Amino acid sequence: MLKYMLFAVVVVAATLPWIAMATATGEPWFCHGLDCPGYTVLSQANGYEVRRYNESQWARTLVKGVDYDDAVQKGFKRLFNYISGDNVDNEKIEMTAPVQVRIDAGQGPFCDSNFTVSFMVPFANQPNPPKPTEKDIYIAVDKAHIAYVTSFPGFAKQNDVLDAAVNLTQALQRDNVSFNSSHFYFAGYDSPFRIVNRHNEVWFWKL
Ligand SMILES: *[C@@H]1O[C@H](CO)[C@@H](O)[C@H](O)[C@H]1NC(C)=O
Ligand SMILES: *[C@@H]1O[C@H](CO)[C@@H](O)[C@H](O)[C@H]1NC(C)=O
Ligand SMILES: *[C@@H]1O[C@H](CO)[C@@H](O)[C@H](O)[C@H]1NC(C)=O
Ligand SMILES: *[C@@H]1O[C@H](CO)[C@@H](O)[C@H](O)[C@H]1NC(C)=O
Ligand SMILES: *[C@@H]1O[C@H](CO)[C@@H](O)[C@H](O)[C@H]1NC(C)=O
Questions:
Q1: 176 close to ligand 4 (CB < 6 Angstrom)
Q2: In the prediction, which pLDDT does 109 show?
Q3: Whose CA is nearest to atom 6 of ligand 2?
């Protein structure tokens, strides 16, 4: 198994020029061929990008807790079951990117935060997403919106996510940009088995 993964990594590394070319066709390189939410870049600022996202439907689950990594793992597992067939159509649903985590921070130390973990519904299912059979999964719309986005590579741990959110907050404040600071989003585009070219984002939404 591990041998296969390492093989896959080498193959990915060898096809880099091809990936760079693929970006010319419109999809961001970091989606690696998976369906991912459509956006247009409105501008580039120092430390962030301004994007207008299209409306899209997501499968979503809320996990309350104090530990980010635990919560994301729990949410991911539930959503993975949903796309593996835990839906009224017993349909296997394609994986998409990114895994989106909305973070509503608790009001004090050791207070529960809300981690809302989501998978985008694939384009083919957007008009009619299969209904979840588990009560803790629901389908929700992200309306078209403008997001301020900062990116970083590597394996994203809780501290990296918080770092990125702090950096983005400072950049937006520096530029007098108004944003909804009551919550923010993490977007992780890669499986744990991708070793190189990992891509992560933190988003604040425009007010
Ligand atoms: C956003 O939606 C519009 C209207 O449906 C569509 O024409 C456009 O291609 C979409 N943009 C992206 C980047 O997906
Ligand atoms: C978490 O979600 C619940 C609703 O399920 C809400 O009552 C609570 O205020 C939220 N907590 C935070 C920190 O946003
Ligand atoms: C946050 O900014 C610091 C200082 O510029 C930088 O070293 C760090 O890599 C940034 N962290 C993230 C996750 O972007
Ligand atoms: C932000 O607002 C402050 C105070 O109103 C002003 O001094 C500063 O020039 C503004 N900065 C930018 C980048 O607009
Ligand atoms: C900001 O987000 C919070 C939820 O975290 C929401 O209740 C509030 O309405 C938003 N504020 C604005 C001005 O949209």
A1: yes
A2: 83
A3: 114
> What does the H/E/C string look like for the chain?
CHHHHHHHHHHHHHCHHHHHHHHHHCCCHHHCCCCCCCEEEEEEECCEEEEEECCEEEEEEEEEECCHHHHHHHHHHHHHHHHCCCECCCCCCCCCCCEEEEEECCCCCCCCEEEEEEEECCHHHCCCCCCECCCCCEEEEECCEEEEEEEECCCCCHHHHHHHHHHHHHHHHHCCCCECCCCEEEEECCCCCCCCCCCEEEEEEEC
Q: What is the pTM of this model?
A: 0.87
Residue 36 identity: C
Query: Which is the closest atom of ligand 3 to the Cα of 160?
Result: 13
Confidence tier at 163 by pLDDT (50, 70, 90): very high
Q: Which of 112, 125, 126 is nearest to 62 (CA)?
A: 112
Examine the pLDDT at 9 and tell me if it is beyond 60. Answer: no
Asked if 206 and 143 count as a contact pair (C-beta separation under 8 A), the reply is no
CA of 70 to the centre of ligand 3 (A): 24
Given this model, what pLDDT does residue 3 score?
44
Q: Which atom of ligand 3 is nearest to the CA of 151?
A: 14
Q: Which residue is associated with the tokens 């970091």?
A: 30
Task: Give the pLDDT confidence score for residue 18 in this predicted structure.
Answer: 41
Residue 28 in contact with ligand 1 by CB distance below 6 A: no
